[in-house]
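Journal club prep — side note

Before the paper discussion, L.F. wants everyone to see what a predicted structure for a comparable chain looks like in token form. Sequence:
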Amino acid sequence: MSDPLYRKDILRLAADAHGAGHLPEPHQKGEAFNPTCGDRVTFEVTTNAEGRIQTIAHETKACVLSQASASILGRDAKNLSPEDITQLRLDVSAMLKESAPAPDAPFTDYAVFDGAVAYTSRHACVLLPIDALLNALEK
């Protein structure tokens, strides 16, 4: 496919669906919803005493961009703090809005969304799972 929004790497991440499902006993749950398109992402987490993510799961009823973003988080957000996820949101937002570099490890896979830079309406799709995870961590 030549469409930068639906590159093989994005489709692969979405299909892998790392972390998809539910936790048996989540400590916190957060959701984000995009009323423009109807995308909805829910994250469940357990955290340790320091607030770091121990286990993570998500339910993503959304476009392939949101699915891929949620998959990255489901795979790479373990052991991170709310501050780490807040920084990730800032970094991904800057990448999309200002063509800044992709986030540092463990989130270098967000570089696959560089094709979305020109499509400002799709920035929300990439950020929606991060917002859902932040909502879970704020509770």
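L.F.'s comment for the group: The chain is about 40% helix and 15% strand. Keep this in mind when we get to the figures.
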